[in-house]
Write a structure and sequence with these properties.
single chain, mainly alpha, about 85% helix, about 0% strand
Length: about 170
């Protein structure tokens, strides 16, 4: 059995990280859009204009949906001791955090999400240590859950952005 603390810290780390992302990232993107477009022209087309146009309220709604999913999976894992769905989301969250660190390095200056990405990566490092030493999962299971979690997270994020984009066009 995995420690409940490990399991429940995932939604807590997510809330901390997404609070920073929701509060600070939309405005930062709007203020830095021209610079980012100039430095990263391939990424700046529709992607940057779409993300910069998301209001903090819509950003918060997207984060709330992701949190609801994370809470449901964590509760399921705590009650039934079926940890594969939780592991999938845990690994996807870790990948998400690493992407933010790479973005920070690429931009070359502080970006909103960097501080909480570092803090949450510390939790992920500890969690990975606990998971590996628990012997609960094989390397194959880690890989399958990691790929599945990233795929589920990517599809979920794509759907959320599609809904936000559609809602923005209906104004």
């Amino acid at each position: 059995m995995l420690p409940d603390l490990l399991l429940w810290l995932l939604p807590a780390a997510f809330v901390l990280h997404d609070a920073e992302e929701t509060v600070f990232l939309p405005g930062w993107l709007r203020r830095n859009r021209d610079d980012l477009s100039r430095r990263f022209p391939r990424l700046s087309g529709r992607l940057l204009s779409h993300v910069a146009a998301i209001s903090p309220a819509r950003f918060a709604a997207m984060a709330a949906e992701e949190l609801a999913l994370l809470l449901a999976v964590t509760l399921y894992s705590v009650i039934l001791h079926d940890y594969y769905p939780w592991l999938a989301l845990f690994l996807a969250f870790g990948v998400h955090l690493v992407v933010h660190i790479v973005q920070w390095i690429a931009v070359g200056r502080y970006i909103p999400v960097a501080a909480t990405s570092l803090a949450a990566l510390a939790y992920c490092g500890w969690g990975l240590h606990v998971l590996v030493n628990s012997g609960f999962f094989t390397l194959r299971e880690f890989l399958i859950c990691g790929v599945a979690g990233c795929a589920v997270a990517a599809v979920n994020l794509w759907l959320l952005h599609a809904l936000v984009g559609a809602a923005g066009r209906k104004k």
